[in-house]
Amino acid sequence: MVAQEYTVDLNKPLVFQVGHLGERYQEWVHQPIVSKEGPRFFSNDFIEFLTRTKWYAVPLIWLPVVCWCFSRSLQMGHSITELSYMAVFGMFIWTLLEYSLHRFLFHIKTESYWANTAHYLLHGCHHKHPMDGLRLVFPPAATAILLFPFWNLVKMFATPSTTPGLFGGGLLGYVLYDCTHYYLHHGQPSSNPAKHLKTYHLNHHFRIQNMGFGITSSFWDIMFGTLPPSLRKKSI
């Protein structure tokens, strides 16, 4: 007797279904469904609500935190020029983190039930439903939880007075990343660099999904050799 392969029912909550796909999950999740209507994740309405985020929630919630961080470094005696260096350096570090998370965590290969389920929640859902506008940016509740270990990590390498400025720069980089990511999916840029970035990112979704991991820039793809061959002459 041959066991029947598991089939995902798109009309039912998806999260606890996808794990059953086993080794077929990777193939399934990288076959995108292009629709602005996102799927239901959970049967519980409150948990379902937490998975949906309007893009403008990101700047509304986190830009005041960025301003507070910058003001703390200024209050501790740093000049505007010094703060600018901290902010730019923090944003630069974010671009490396953006690339590294996307390449090594978001595109990790999974097969087990719980690994597939976790991957779908983390990033697989975005590749399966790339135009779902309510699941493009990271939910604020999850971001808030992750900020604590990142703050402590910055504290390990920075002084008490530079920690807020560097952290604020990194957080500003994250805000720009999430807003840029949303725009690349739903905006219609008519000129570069936004037009190039949109082409670059959609190429990652619909053509070569194991390359082109940068969102706000192709810099780290160039540095680490993950630039799609067809875009090498066009990239910045």
UniProtKB/TrEMBL annotation:
Subcellular localization(s) per the UniProt record: Endoplasmic reticulum membrane
Signal peptide region: none
Protein name according to UniProt: Fatty acid 2-hydroxylase
Pfam families named in the record: FA_hydroxylase (PF04116)
Keywords assigned: Endoplasmic reticulum, Fatty acid biosynthesis, Fatty acid metabolism, Lipid biosynthesis, Lipid metabolism, Membrane, Metal-binding, Oxidoreductase, Transmembrane, Transmembrane helix, Zinc
Molecular function (Gene Ontology), one example: fatty acid 2-hydroxylase activity
Family according to the record: Belongs to the sterol desaturase family.
Fatty acid hydroxylase domain sequence ranges: 88-226
This protein's record includes keyword Zinc: yes
Needed co-factor(s): Zn(2+)
Organism the protein comes from: Rhynchospora pubera
Coiled coil spans: none
Gene Ontology cellular component annotations, sorted alphabetically: endoplasmic reticulum membrane
Gene Ontology BP, a term: fatty acid biosynthetic process
Record membrane topology: Multi-pass membrane protein
